[in-house]
Amino acid sequence: MEHALSPAALAELRRPRPYPAVSVLTPTHRREPENAQDPVRLRNVVADAKKQLESDPAVTRERRADVVRQLEEALTEVDLTHAEDGLVIFAAPGEHQVWSLARTVPERVVLADTFLTRNLVSAQAAERPFWVLSVSADRVTLWNGGGDRVVEERAGGFPLTRSTDNFDAERQERIGDLPSTFRDESTRHFLRDADTAMGRLLRGHPRPLYVTGETAALSLLDEVGSVTHGAVHIRHGGLADSSAETVWQAVRPMVTADSRRSTDEVARDLESARGHKTYAAGLDEVWQSAREGRVRLLAVEENYRATVRDDGGDHLTPAESGDLDAREDIVDEIVEQCLETGADVRFVPDGMLGDATGIAGVLRY
């Protein structure tokens, strides 16, 4: 099952497919007794997807058989013993993917010519994504972080490696010869290339950046480069060739502290917006502002959910789950809309937004 939504993965998921591209969503649970229902719900929602394929006159017999086979293969890859809060299966002719999300999703089946990605996008934003760059003299590894994990990101030229005659970075660390290693001209060029590659990645996919390495490595990277100057430096060597869990444990204290500072910053921005008349609060007001592209900063409480009905395109009215025309993931719709118009989206602890009832924004005008 997939967990980390990289920019490249999202772009690939969003490209058009031959009809039908099937999106199957179902909530899952981490603990007993709630998780006892998950296998039954999963089988039922996949059965519903098969029924929709069977009854859709636009789906040929060959494509129906192909997509059903993809759904069945996807089911074999689901591991509910490690379930999080939501599960998404994508299936189209010749392909399928299974995604586990640390954010709940409504139970739903959608047949279209693209996959339904809004719930993945919202889940990623809720996990507060960040980059980790682990630096050594012969390898620079990029990690994609969010929630409570990191995974190696093989994109943008990373990992960067080099092999030189008679070069043994680990041995030089053991014998204390690191300073001379990082004065070497070839090492300077290597780390300058890493800084350039990281700069390109950050321009396209800006996120907070943490850089790990020996003190000498971090000092040289700052000297020869520029994009890591504003990054959080963590003096911890040996992570360029380490496991994802080891990297996560090394950066976790700094990530937690930054999360607290981010929450305080959001509170200040919202309070300032009240005084400048650029404050929006509540689902209906924020939804209208998001549609107009006016939201600069969106704040959402972590577990806020709402089910609504679109009242003629002008207002949202409360609805019950399962009602005709009910929109059960309206919060995720707003999150995706705001991200696509360049807004900064922050998830904050439950109860922080007070009378805003779960969602608030700072407007551009």
Kindly describe this structure:
With 365 residues, the protein is an alpha+beta fold. Helices cover 39% and strands 23% of the residues. The protein is built from eleven helices and 16 strands. The strands form four sheets. Strands 5, 6, 7, 8, 9 and 10 form a six-stranded mixed β-sheet that branches. Strands 3-2-1-4 form a four-stranded antiparallel β-sheet, sandwiched between helices. Helix 2 (38-55) packs antiparallel against helix 3 (61-77), helix 4 (118-126) packs across helix 11 and helix 10 (283-291) runs parallel beside helix 11. The longest helix is centred in the last third of the chain and has 32 residues, at 244-275. The two termini are 42 Å apart.
Q: What integer value in Å does the Rg equal? A: 23 Å
Main β sheet profile: 6 strands, mixed
Which spans have pLDDT < 50 for at least 5 consecutive residues? none
Measured as a percent range, the helix fraction is: 25-40%
Indicate the overall shape. globular
Q: Give the class from helix and strand content and strand pairing.
A: alpha+beta
Total helical elements: 11
- The secondary-structure element order is HEHHEEEHEEEEHHHEHEHEHEEEHEE
Beta-strand proportion? 15-25%
| pLDDT averaged over residues | 90
N-to-C span: 42 Å
Strands, total number:
16
